[in-house]
Design goal:
Bound molecules: 4'-deoxy-4'-aminopyridoxal-5'-phosphate
Pfam families: Aminotran_5
Structural class: alpha/beta
Cofactor: pyridoxal 5'-phosphate
GO molecular function: cysteine desulfurase activity; pyridoxal phosphate binding
Enzyme class: transferase
Protein name: Cysteine desulfurase
Length: about 425
């Protein structure tokens, strides 16, 4: 993406209006949540102004409009991730809910004592605690794959731990800490050969790189809208239709039923089977608009731009003696969240001092405590870059790392 194009893109983001915001912000916390372009905010607002009614309920003009808007959003998302049909797209609140839906409606029903669940040490707590719960309830065993010395999944360890007892593999598409993008196609292929189903946590992958459900061939894929330019409270669970239609509902209530009798009920198929109650229609429309916006820029351009910016940031950080960095060097595919520590200084202090210079980075364990423990650190800082960031912003961030050291009385070696 050329710089003049980025200048234009940045006009779409109101948080960059220093006067209205009350201060300048160099936003490097995109992995926590992205900023939202004005067209997304306008799409949500227009929906509530001119199309608001409860979809799938009733026959009047507005409810038909709302249904169309909601179902068109589902179709856009199906196309965006190349699902076979929009029936494979379930609206949820976020990745966490999508993973819980699989745990409750698939795993608790299908796993039994001594079956095995395989995850990696990279996983976000939402892809960890969910399986702790399933293991506790079913008696299945949770096994964990560790990393190679480039902060990526050790595929030999994966192959060793994948056995005929493995019934479910759940792996991140991109780590929110190390940015590693495991070879999910290979993981799916190996897991299917062993008869296991595969869940991909796509929260940090879908916003940054083109994903293709038919190519990846995973059974489930979870997405959070708010990390990809959309409002909070809207997420996606992709699932293969034949698996979804054989799963029990997750929640019970209106719209997911076929018939309700006094003593029992029957249910629709996917996707409505999993969408009990009134849904976040504005959120779905916002997500569809965000996808339209990203596709206009081009997912390959987004990935390339973020890759260039993060490669630049990593190469500069590598030169600083007081920085420890937890990022795969020279990886074929990699995300743009860069976890690091400033030697001798607690990450929260680093983040607070950087905040004084208008720089927003995350500090803590980033909902990945087991990974931090594995890396033998308590916490880290994370600068996560989006396509709408600039090289100048990265330079300011790098410059102010020196101020972090100076503020606390440390030298620059
Ligand atoms: N997985 C990964 C890799 C994430 O980065 C996050 C969000 N930090 C989640 C899952 C959970 O997303 P949400 O809070 O939107 O459910």
């Amino acid at each position: 993406l050329l710089d003049d194009k980025i200048v234009k893109i940045r006009e779409d983001f109101s948080y960059l209006d220093e006067q209205k915001l009350g201060r300048k912000i160099i936003y490097l916390d995109n992995a926590a949540t992205s900023q939202k372009p004005n067209c997304v905010i306008d799409a949500v607002s227009d929906y509530y102004k001119y199309q608001n009614a409860n979809p799938h309920r009733g026959a009047h003009y507005l409810t038909v409009k709302a249904t169309e808007a909601y179902e068109n959003a589902r179709s856009s998302i199906a196309k965006f991730i190349n699902a076979k049909s929009s029936d494979e797209i379930i609206f949820t609140r976020n990745t966490t809910e999508s993973l819980n839906l699989i745990a409750y409606s698939y795993a608790l029903e299908n796993l039994k004592k001594d079956d095995e669940i395989l995850i990696t040490i990279l996983e976000h707590h939402s892809n960890f605690t969910t399986w702790h719960y399933v293991a506790e309830k079913t008696g299945a065993k949770l096994k964990i794959v560790y990393l190679d010395d480039n902060f990526s999944v050790d595929m030999t360890d994966f192959e060793n731990k994948l056995t005929s007892k493995t019934k479910l593999v759940s792996v991140t598409g991109a780590s929110n800490v190390t940015s590693c993008m495991p070879d999910i196609e290979k993981i799916v292929e190996l897991s299917h050969k062993n008869g296991a189903i595969v869940v991909v946590d796509g929260a940090q992958l879908a916003p940054h790189k083109k994903v293709d459900m038919q190519k990846i061939n995973c059974d489930f894929f979870a997405i959070s809208g708010h990390k990809m330019l959309s409002p909070m409270g809207i997420g996606i669970l992709y699932g293969k239709k034949d698996i979804l239609d054989n799963m029990k509902p997750f929640m019970y209530g209106g719209e997911m039923i076929e018939y309700v009798y006094e003593d029992y009920s029957t249910f629709t198929l996917s996707p409505t089977r999993f969408e009990a109650g009134t849904m976040n229609v504005g959120g779905a429309i916002g997500l569809a608009k965000a996808i339209e916006y990203m596709e206009a820029i081009g997912m390959d351009n987004i990935y390339e731009r973020e890759r260039q910016l993060s490669e630049y940031a990593v190469s500069q950080l590598n030169k600083i003696p007081y920085i420890d960095i937890y990022y795969p060097q020279n990886a074929k595919n990699v995300g743009s969240a860069i976890a690091f520590n400033v030697k001798e200084i607690h990450p929260h202090d680093v983040a607070s001092i950087l905040d004084n210079f208008n720089i927003a980075v995350r500090s803590g364990h980033h909902c990945a405590m087991p990974l931090h423990k594995y890396l033998k650190i308590n916490a880290s800082c994370r600068a996560s870059i989006s396509f709408y960031n600039t090289k100048q912003e990265i330079d300011e961030f790098l410059t102010h790392l020196e101020d972090v050291r100076r503020t606390l009385g440390y030298g620059l070696e």
